[in-house]
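Suppose you are handed a protein chain with no further information: no name, no annotation, nothing but its sequence. What can you learn? This example shows the usual starting point.
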Amino acid sequence: MADLEPNFWIDVEGDVVAQLVDHIVLLAFESQVLFAERFGGVAWEGDLTEPPTFTFHTDPPARFAPSFVGSTSADGSWMWGWHNINQFAEPVVAIANTVHGNGEQLGIAELTTALQPLDAEARAAQGLPVRTDVATQYVLLTQALSLDPAPVWFRSFGESADDQATFILRNDADFALPPARSLSVNRTLTEGLSSGMMTDHVLAVHSYAARREGIVLDRADADCYELRCADGTVIVRFDDLRRISAIESTVGPESVGPETVGAEWSDG
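A reasonable first move is to predict its three-dimensional structure. Written in structure tokens, the prediction is:
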């Protein structure tokens, strides 16, 4: 399975795009919140010559290595970064090339079609899967393949709000998630569930716990995961369709029972 092994649990007979999104969506959302808190509204500049760098003018400045994922345009289309019509340096499109390589090996047309519509009817007419928020799902699957420990994306705008170029940014030295805490884990799970981006909730929670520093995962039984953090435990329960049905938290070693935080979730 080339680049997908040994980092992913993937059923190649299933929807690989959705599975890759599940692998990263929770960690990506948590990282994006922290990135927005630190760099939202900060002046920035990008230099895509070698070495490619995005600089945010904080004090001191923060510099990230950018990887171009792709772009949307006002005509309602998505273009993959590996198509590289701008002739960006190889490091800028390396991860996009990884996406293309996996698409070729696994026969996934939407990963090897350079220019494709976002509209559901137009996608169906071309034999492409219909997806909610195509551009965001493509960014997430690219983040999954990047294996970044704190994956974040950054969108620059062209002449209209629909003209967007999306990059994923990495700076392991200056940007990292703090150790996991039960409240932040609970919030990440709740917000990820509300996003509608999770397909296989068990896979999404398992992958998040495996990648997130400071979480120890225990499987209490077939329908229950316990995500243990330094300050408490987040308990996640699933229904028969592998959907999250409840999220609970216990805080501190002297906690006598689960304190439900937020809503109890069910699609039933």
